[in-house]
Structures are given as structure tokens and as C-alpha cells.
Specification:
This protein is of the alpha/beta class and about 220 residues long. The chain contains eight helices and ten strands.
């Protein structure tokens, strides 16, 4: 099933006090924005955004093994890149240094996935944008969604390193936009921000996410809270 059934959003929405409750690592002082919302706990059978993000996250090895899955992954990247271009003005895009949040695989792993960089390049094609892989993981980890016991924030932080050569290649723009596909707890965003702060203590850092995970609200009596 392809990604064409997902509704098309066209703006960035800032996290507010209510939406931050779904992302316990994100604090009131953090600036985070998202393009669309994804309800947690729904499988690909729900269609729409659920299928779209599964196609987007298809591993490189799985895509190489199946021309159909490779096509769906490309379509998902194209769709999400189009949404991002609609949501972010050219001025806003060009004012930031865009830093993809590293995937769970190290750079030398065959399943290292550059989907975030590909999405940014496609979204801001013809713009004067600064997209840089300033961060990387030094070893593989299991994706959080695939394990029962997740890596702690301190353990993740220790695995994140800065590419100093890439950092020194040219000046950072007015702000850094840490970019990821789905905002869940906010752990990866905060660990990346913390690592960058070691060398860039005064540069504003924001988070930009294609989707944010919305936790289902518990039902209490006749009301949903």
C-alpha cells in the first residue's frame, strides 16, 4: 500500500503545554515544532500516516531486497519532503543550519539510513540551505520502538559524537534546527541538543519534526481526558 491516502498538512505547529505532556523529555524552555500528528498504538492497517511513516522508515536492506518497498520508501520521502516545503518558508529554511538527528545505525553500517538528509535536500531543493550531518552514533543501537527496555538518555548521549570537521567547514547560521521524523519521548532531541551545546553554547537550537506521536487519552467515566 502506498502513502497517497495520508492527509496533507501545510504548516508547522509549536508544541504547547498540553502537547508537551506526550513527550516527557521536552521542557517548557524547548522550542519544538511538528508538521502532523500520529496516534500511538496504531498499525499499518490504520492506513494514512501510519502506513506513510512505516514506508519512510523501511530499512535500506529491506528496500534493496524489494523493488516495491523501495518504491514506497521513495514515495514516502517525496510526500514528506513536499509537506516540509509547504510548512517552512524559504526564509525560515535558509536561516537555519539543519542537522538530521542520527539514526540508530552507525555510519559504516549497511543499514545506515539517510532518509532525513534526503528529505531535507528534496524539500529545500533550489534554496540556499545548510544541511549538515554534525552528529553521528559511534555504534549501533536497537530502535526504541523495537525494544521493551529502551536505552537511557545518558547511554544515548555517550554514543553521540560531533563531526568536528563538518562543524568547522563553514559558519553556523542563525539557529540550528535538529530534524527528525517522529517526536516520541524527546530523548534523542534532548541528547543531540546537549551534545551540540558543548561546542555551540550560544547558538539557538530548535527541534523540527515531521510527525509527533500523540498518546491515547485514558477514558474516565463519560469523558476523555
Amino acid at each position: 500500500m502506498g502513502p497517497g491516502t495520508a492527509e496533507r498538512p501545510c504548516k508547522l505547529t509549536l508544541l504547547d503545554a498540553g502537547s508537551r505532556l506526550d513527550h516527557h523529555f521536552v521542557s517548557a524552555t524547548d522550542s519544538c515544532a511538528f508538521v502532523a500528528e500520529l496516534v500511538a498504538g496504531r498499525s499499518y492497517r490504520a492506513g494514512g500516516l501510519n502506513q506513510l511513516i512505516l514506508n519512510f522508515k523501511c530499512t535500506p536492506s529491506a528496500a534493496r531486497a524489494s523493488p516495491q518497498r523501495e518504491r514506497y520508501k521513495r514515495q514516502a520521502i517525496t510526500t514528506l519532503a513536499h509537506w516540509l516545503r509547504l510548512a517552512v518558508s524559504r526564509t525560515e529554511a535558509e536561516q537555519s543550519t539543519w542537522v538530521p538527528i542520527p539514526p540508530s545505525r552507525s555510519l559504516d553500517d549497511p543499514d545506515f539510513d539517510d532518509r532525513l538528509s534526503r528529505t531535507l535536500s528534496l524539500a529545500f531543493d533550489s534554496y540556499d540551505v545548510d544541511v549538515r550531518g554534525l552528529l553521528y552514533q559511534v555504534r549501533n543501537t536497537a530502535p526504541d520502538h523495537a525494544v521493551d527496555v529502551r536505552l537511557s538518555a545518558d547511554m544515548l548521549f555517550d554514543l553521540l559524537h560531533i563531526d568536528v570537521a563538518a562543524l568547522k567547514a563553514r559558519p553556523i547560521r542563525e539557529r540550528i534546527a535538529l530534524f527528525d521524523d517522529v517526536l516520541t519521548t524527546g530523548k534523542h532531541f534532548k541528547c543531540c541538543e546537549r551534545r551540540l551545546r558543548q561546542l555551540l553554547p550560544c547558538v539557538p537550537i530548535a527541534g523540527v519534526f515531521l510527525l509527533r506521536r500523540v498518546l491515547p487519552r485514558k477514558r474516565r467515566g463519560p469523558e476523555i481526558v
